[in-house]
Description:
Layout: E1 7-11, H1 24-30, E2 34-37, H2 55-69, E3 73-78, H3 80-91, E4 96-102, H4 113-122, H5 128-139, H6 148-159, H7 164-171, H8 177-182, E5 190-195, H9 204-214, E6 218-222, H10 229-232, H11 234-251
Parallel strand pairs: 1-2, 1-3, 3-4, 4-5, 5-6
Helix pairs in contact: 2-3, 5-6
Amino acid sequence: MQGTGPVVVMVPGMGDLRSGYRFLTPVLVAAGYTVVTTDLRGHGDSDTSFTGYGTNNTATDIEALLRELGTPATIVGNSMAAGSAVIVAAQHPELVTGLVLVGPFVRPPASSAVGLLLFRVLMARPWVTAAWNSYLPTLYAGTKPVDFAGYRASVVASLKRPGYASAFSRTTHADHTLAGQSLAAVQTPTLVVMGEKDPDFTDQQGEADWIANTLHGTAVMVPDAGHYPQSQQPELTSTAILGFLSSLKTNA
């Protein structure tokens, strides 16, 4: 936890670390926010003792974290964690003041069953660490962070620890069905942030607009960025998020 002021909880996607918000965190702290970053189960500083992994489990963990903090917060969720944030906002609206959904999976993907199966085979043990090391650069379509080589090495080193590759592999079986079913119940102010080159979506603008319209929110497209605009284009992304957070203060 860093800073003082309204609380912002930031959650990374599967295969990523909470340090994926390393550029965004100091900007929000300097702007007067308390920033809390957390790792997913079986990732980073978390452990591998859990019996379940995925979108729904992450939603449960976010809820528990918010209750431990004792104050409502804006949730920033990237990729799978965006769907988890939606679930929390739908089920526990009193805990969530705002949603920032980055490269969000908030409904079952449009990809074919064959494509999904191939991805899960690719991310299976015992080759998941090598496969993710090779696959990760493709998710950073567009401009890569200045420290990408070092950050990629830290992600891979984290996976090489005993039990962590298995936990990540199990996380890739995440089911976004509940997130999709929860969308209609969300009344929380929402910002959708999508990289214009995000390779996880065939129609990036269309997906961002659909999510924003469904949640009565706003979509911001980030040029020359893939699945991680928060680290690929941190200035543009932080400007969009700060504007959104400021609007929450105004409407409070």
